[in-house]
Amino acid sequence: MTEQDRDGVADVSTGESKETAEGAAAAAGGETTRENTGEPAGGTDGEAGAAVPDGTAPEPAIPELVIISGMSGAGRSTAAKCLEDLGWFVVDNLPPALIPTMVELGARSQGNVARIAVVVDVRGRRFFDNLRESLADLDAKQVTRRIVFLESSDEALVRRFESVRRPHPLQGDGRIVDGIEAERDLLRELRGDADLVIDTSSLNVHELRAKMDAQFAGDEEPELRATVMSFGYKYGLPVDADLVVDCRFLPNPHWVPELRPFTGLNEEVSGYVFNQPGAKEFLDRYTELLELIATGYRREGKRYVTVAVGCTGGKHRSVAMSEKLGARLAAEGIETVVVHRDMGRE
Hints:
By secondary structure, this protein is α/β, with parallel strands linked by helices.
């Protein structure tokens, strides 16, 4: 399966090599050697290693942490590779019980390991018990952590496993769909706790990397990032949507012959949509509602929200509404990306 394949996000093979915990341990070992030779204890960077005026060494900075998990074949390795390219220290298939140790080693690296991404899966027998314990430990240490969950439809996952002729890690003597069902049940609680859910069912490698870049490439973490996604109900609801908006109460430009060939990006189509009774009022009031929700999300520490705007085919009304809604959110200081999932599928 090539990178250009639409299903190229699948990381069915678990043999992809990443930086390992031993690498960080070696870095930490170098730190210990310098301490034994009498050099100043390490801090978070070259300057932070120096002693403060009262003669005590500063506390080491705790690295930022991202935990990448999700369905096997949904693109975990691709997401991890993207973070690696952005300068993150990536550890693949790390047992959850070792996550706090990994963070501690990063804190002892004199700032060389300031951002850590850990890929975890459910093959460990005590996966969730260990993960809960590790997350509680991280929270007690006030570690800034985020969970990224890679989701995909059963059909896409089956297609990806069949294309590389590999069994699902949990299927045992059963079928691929049996393994997928078992894994989905095991991951349901983790998916609910995720800060960011990405559905890769219809994404290729480049599109998944673009989503990861949009969330992690910035120099500074914004307070809240929003994705406004138009979609067509006849193609199904987006599984990664936090909020769903239905625009089918507006007249459909599809039934206007001169507008049918165009999309909601066209000025005439957009004008037609927003000249309908209730369209502008809906945009105004829903924007106010999102501002209220955004305030609550910030207060609860939620950094990402996906608003799905739907119409019948995802071509006219939802596209026009998504563009306007995205512009409104951006004007309110929310970093916003507008995506049109089903535009062009007809």
